[in-house]
Amino acid sequence: xxxxxxxxxxxxxxxxxxxxxxxxxxxxxxxxxxxxxxxxxxxxxxxxxxxxxxxxxxxxxxxxxxxxxxxxxxxxxxxxxxxxxxxxxxxxxxxxxxxxxxxxxxxxxxxxxxxx
Length: 116
Prior knowledge:
GO molecular function: DNA binding
Number of strands: 0
Domain HTH cro/C1-type: 9-63
Organism: Blautia argi
Structural class: mainly alpha
Protein name: Transcriptional regulator
Oligomer: single chain
CATH class of the largest domain: Mainly Alpha
């Protein structure tokens, strides 16, 4: 089944008059792999958002939409903590440990703080 990210990717491809093989080449993957990502059989590689932005001259809003759609299908998320300060690291880890127990009101407040 085509994912929301897959739909957006397909739209991007069509808007640029490209075939599946053209976009696969731009992303450095096989047609089969690109098709599997579009159809939700594989997760969206983290590097694709930047590559798509560069290859297709996407705006920051378009990139944000793609990133959000890419995260929809992820079963896990990897965050690189190596280049952040210890206080920021502690906050990220505290959130990771407790986000499942947040109330709806607490989640709304966090979204508000983060500007969503």
